[in-house]
Amino acid sequence: LNIVGFCEIEPYAQKVLNKNFPGVPVYKDIKKLNGRQFKDIDLIT
């Protein structure tokens, strides 16, 4: 399993993700996420 990012709008949850998954980007708004940057991704949940 290779985690390439998270999307989370809540600031506290963003802090938890950043702490537990250092180096993995946390995107703030799913509506602004461009799927083209994830060419080889099989699953987004």
Strand and helix layout:
Layout: E1 6-7, H1 11-20, E2 26-27
Parallel strand pairs: 1-2
Characterization of the model:
The two termini are 14 Å apart. It is globular and about 30 Å long. It is built from one helix and two strands, in the order βαβ. It has one domain (6-37). The model has no long low-confidence stretch (mean pLDDT 88). It has a two-stranded parallel sheet. It is an alpha+beta fold and 45 residues long.
What is the general shape? globular
Our count of domains comes out at 1
Number of DSSP strand runs: 2
pLDDT averaged over residues:
88
The helical percent reads 10-25%
Largest sheet: 2 strands, parallel
Beta percentage is 5-15%
- Secondary-structure element string: EHE
- Rg measurement, Å: 11 Å
* Regions with little confidence, pLDDT below 50 for 5+ residues: none
Structural class: alpha+beta
Number of helices: 1
Strand order of the largest sheet: 1-2
What's the end-to-end separation, in Å? 14 Å
Short structural summary:
With 45 residues, the chain is an alpha+beta fold. It is built from 1 helix and 2 strands, in the order βαβ.
